Amino acid sequence: MPRVSAVLMNRILPNALLLTIVSVGLIGCGYHLVRAGVAGSITEIEIGAVEAPDLDESSAVRARSRLRSQIKRRGTPALVQTSTTELTAIVSAPTRAVIGFGENGVDSVQQTGVKVELKLSRAGHVFWTSGPVTGEQPLSVGGSAYETENSRKRAIEYALDAALDAALIKFYQASITPEARS
């Protein structure tokens, strides 16, 4: 039994003390979890439409599936088929920029970018938006037209995933806000 109390004194208590000090420090600075924040106030959500007019239908389906799986993985808010709160996404046309050239002066590396904006609405009224968030992915070109097209499609998928993930981070961070001290 003396061995257990030594472990308790040497490992657990210092960590608990450190956690308490950090928590009190953050509270003193005005940071706290707010139930009235965007993600904190929503108990259930419906994944609505993904508008991606410049992408093929499979990209919109993939984006909707990614939103669903990322929110489900976090466990909050609960995903339901019908809710008063709807999360939608608008995906802009992918962009391409040359970022590298081959020996013969022909572009060999391009950067693909996709912008995503998430919106939360109730009864048709948008009450939160992530703002445009960009995901980017380089792609190699220079093989056959078939290889280049497949690389482009994969780059768009990766860029779209990155943009969705970044927008979701904004969604979850929206529930942690600094409170002004008076």
Give the count of helical stretches. 3
Question: pLDDT under 50 segments (min length 5)?
Answer: 28-39, 176-182
Assembly level: single chain
Q: Care to count the β-strands?
A: 9
Please, what is the average pLDDT?
A: 78
Roughly what fraction of the amino acids lie in strands? 25-35%
SS-derived structural category:
alpha+beta
Series of secondary-structure elements, N-terminal to C-terminal? HEEHEEEEEEHE
Q: Rg to the nearest angstrom? A: 23 Å
Largest sheet: 7 strands, mixed
Explain this structure.
With 182 residues, the chain is of the alpha+beta class. It has 3 helices and 9 strands; from the N terminus they run αββαββββββαβ. Strands 2, 3, 4, 5, 6, 7 and 8 form a 7-stranded mixed sheet that branches. A two-stranded antiparallel ribbon has the order 1-9. The radius of gyration is 23 Å and the shape is elongated.
